[in-house]
Design a protein that fits this description.
This protein is of the alpha/beta class. About 45% of the residues lie in helices and about 15% in strands. It folds into 2 domains: about 160 residues, Rossmann fold, CATH 3.40.50.1100; about 220 residues, Rossmann fold. Strands 3-4-14-9-10-13 form a 6-stranded mixed beta sheet, sandwiched between helices. The structure holds pyridoxal-5'-phosphate. Belongs to the TrpB family.
């Protein structure tokens, strides 16, 4: 396999000026990451600050309703409410041990910005968060949280003033400040080595879940493992340690948007074609001429026109089945899990729960382990607007 590739996908499609910090990061992954000092500090922080291991939870009521055994891996119980902290804390500690004192990140809905700011505060580093000016207004509560925890927010006024403009501006900042600054990438995508680095920090989800499930089920593995796929970080974390288990069916759920014919979606594996975006070769939603198409999902964290390259590869080799769930199916799952189990899931995670609900006929009698990537308190405003 070519370095930095997963089959035909991945690579480093970036301006040459960005090579030095990526090479420096790759070096740190070989020297600092495996060191006893890093591993001990990271493990302790995951335990004391994040609250790991996160539980797995059996859902007795919904299991009975659906005629299957539904289990949840509870990343919603992590400090700051989702899986993102596993990655930002890992990259933050790595950057600190590399001698950097600034964590730079871009954010759309603000969740990755918040997780980066939390990590920076814990590690006594500075957080600089790039956000499209439109998003700064739309996502005021997250902007407030970030400022409270000490982040500098840079509102980007160029282009459409949203996520992709924030990414471009943040990359320029990294070019000029690479001595002091680490670019804390938010998902298992982007140029090599980010997809591998982010997987390294998120694979703890399946490491724990696999052991926890077997301990509760007389050594048996689950029949089906499910996660939602935006950029792909909670999913690759949930899949990684199950990939060698041939008996386990693995399902990635992309967002279909409204589900109407011709609507914008966030499902590049199901509806996209091969292309290059944000430094990687992957599956993209694009026109025939290679212009990126707008994406849509009711779940802000899934609203991305690309996907991490390892998912494109797992799809190509047929190891993972990728499918879609639309907005209204996700809203239904949001309500059903809240009502039947007293757990309010993030709208992103609701897509994974909806898979079990919508496919209950084929899943009769099976054990289904779903990654609950985050909690849904943040989404009550979106729901209020709709209902
Ligand atoms: C950000 C987010 C996602 C999507 O990101 P991935 O990198 O695909 O995991 C999913 N769920 C929650 C709760 C999120 O905050």
């Amino acid at each position: 396999m070519k370095k930095g590739y997963f089959g035909d996908f991945g690579g480093q499609f970036i301006p040459e000026l960005l090579m030095p910090p990526l090479i420096e990061l790759e070096e740190a992954m070989k020297t600092i990451l495996p060191s006893e000092e890093f591993q001990t500090r990271f493990t302790n922080m995951l335990k004391e600050n994040v609250g790991r291991p996160s539980a797995i939870t059996y859902c007795p009521n919904l299991s009975k309703d659906l005629g299957l055994d539904l289990w949840l891996k509870r990343e919603d119980l992590n400090h700051s409410g989702a899986h993102k902290i596993n990655n930002t804390l890992g990259q933050g500690l790595l950057a600190k041990m590399m001698g950097k004192d600034v964590l730079l990140a871009e954010t759309g809905a603000g969740m990755h910005g918040v997780a980066t700011t939390v990590a920076a505060a814990m590690l006594d580093m500075k957080a600089v968060i790039y956000m499209g000016a439109t998003d700064v207004v739309r996502q005021a509560p997250n902007v407030g949280r970030m400022r409270l925890m000490g982040a500098e927010i840079v509102a980007v006024e160029s282009g459409t003033k949203t996520l992709k403009d924030a990414i471009n501006a943040a990359l320029r900042r990294w070019l000029s400040d690479q001595e002091t600054t680490h670019y804390c990438f938010g998902t298992a995508a982007g140029p090599h080595p980010f997809p591998t680095l982010v997987r390294e920090f998120q694979q703890i989800i399946s490491k724990e879940a696999r052991e926890q499930f077997m301990a509760r089920n007389e050594g048996k593995l689950p029949d089906v493992v499910v996660a939602c796929v935006g950029g792909g970080s909670n999913a690759i974390g949930m899949f990684h340690n199950f990939v060698p288990d041939e008996s386990v069916r693995i399902v990635g759920v992309e967002a279909a948007g409204t589900g109407e014919p011709g609507c914008y979606s966030s499902a590049p594996i199901d509806h996209g074609t091969d292309g290059v975006l944000h430094g990687m070769m992957t599956k993209l939603l694009q026109t025939k001429d290679g212009q990126i198409e707008p994406s849509h999902s009711i779940a802000p964290g899934l609203d991305y026109p690309g996907v991490g390259p390892e998912h494109a590869h797992l799809d190509a080799i047929g190891r993972v089945d990728y499918t879609t769930i639309n907005d209204s199916q996700a809203i239904n799952a949001f309500k059903v899990l809240s009502r039947r189990e007293g757990i309010i899931p993030a709208l992103e995670s609701s897509h994974a729960v909806a898979y079990a609900i919508e496919n209950r006929e084929q899943l009769q009698g099976k054990s289904v382990l779903v990654c609950l990537s985050g909690r849904g308190d943040k989404d009550l405003g979106i729901l209020d607007q709709i209902l």
